Amino acid sequence: MRAMFMEHPNDPVCQTLDMQYYLGESLVVAPIFNPEGVGNYYLPEGEYTHLLSNEVKRGGRYYSEVYDYQSLPLYVKPITILPIGNHDSRPDYDYLTDISYHIFNLRSETTLHLPVYNIENEQEELIKLVKEDNEIIINRTFKKPAKFILRNIDHIDSSNVPFKHSFYGIELTVTDQDEITILI
Questions:
Q1: What residues contact 2, with CB distance under 8 A and at least 6 apart?
Q2: Together in a domain, 72 and 86
Q3: pLDDT grade for 143, boundaries at 50, 70 and 90
Q4: Residue 137 has pLDDT above 90, yes or no
Q5: Are 170 and 100 found together in one domain?
Q6: Contact status, residue 42 vs residue 14, Cβ threshold 8 Å
Q7: Cα(99)–Cα(114) distance, rounded to whole angstroms?
Q8: Do strands 99-104 and 146-151 pair parallel, antiparallel, or not at all (unpaired)?
Q9: Rounded to whole angstroms, how far apart are CA atoms 45 and 28?
Q10: Residues 144 and 72 in one domain
Q11: Whole domain around residue 112: which residue ranges?
Q12: Among 46, 76, 106, which residue terminates a domain?
């Protein structure tokens, strides 16, 4: 858990936020503390994507919404690769088996590096993503099958791996390729 001002030290609003936080480097969490389910939260500048509903919201403003028991304000910051494992029943498993890498709000001239660690806290994979103009190149160091999900992208021109449309966007299925090229 990280205080909002740690991630956004130049945003004066984040200096006063004490009812929401970052979980890791990428997830903004705003717990709901009332029986009505009203969530009041602030998103800093950028386009944030709700992790579960895939709704995109513009930052730099406050929001107030009603949530049920199955949801809460849980937003992914822009320009993020978020690894999501395949097990929700236990914390200790082979993280790279059937892993999904969700890619959020890329901009041109973007380079991201994502180290992925195993249960012994040893780096087991390194993902490098480069976006230039209409091309995304993803390099990986590990050869286990994985999925890459381009969140809120509904069309690509071509890819060197199989892909399909899903609720979240374009889903690419990668088997043993160490480089993936996508034209959008």
A1: 21, 22, 23, 24, 25
A2: no
A3: confident
A4: yes
A5: yes
A6: yes
A7: 13
A8: parallel
A9: 13
A10: no
A11: 80-183
A12: 76
Give me the count of residues in the chain: 184
Please report which confidence band the pLDDT of residue 6 belongs to, taking 50, 70 and 90 as the band edges. Answer: very high
Where would I find the beta strands (DSSP E) of 59-104?
61-66, 74-76, 80-84, 99-104
174 and 111 belong to one structural domain: yes
> Residue 45 and residue 163: Cα distance in Å, rounded?
31
**CA-CA distance, 71 to 22, in Å (whole number)?**
17
According to DSSP, residue 96 is labeled T
Total domains present in the chain: 2
φ, ψ at 85 (rounded to 5°): -75, 180
- Secondary structure class of 12 (helix, strand, coil): coil
DSSP state string for 134-177: TEEEEEES--S-EEEEEET----SEESS-EEE-SSEEEEEESS-
Tell whether 50 and 133 lie within a shared domain.
no
Q: Which two tokens stand for residue 102?
A: 């969700």
Residue pLDDT, tens place only, 90-122 = 888 888 888 999 999 998 899 999 999 988 999
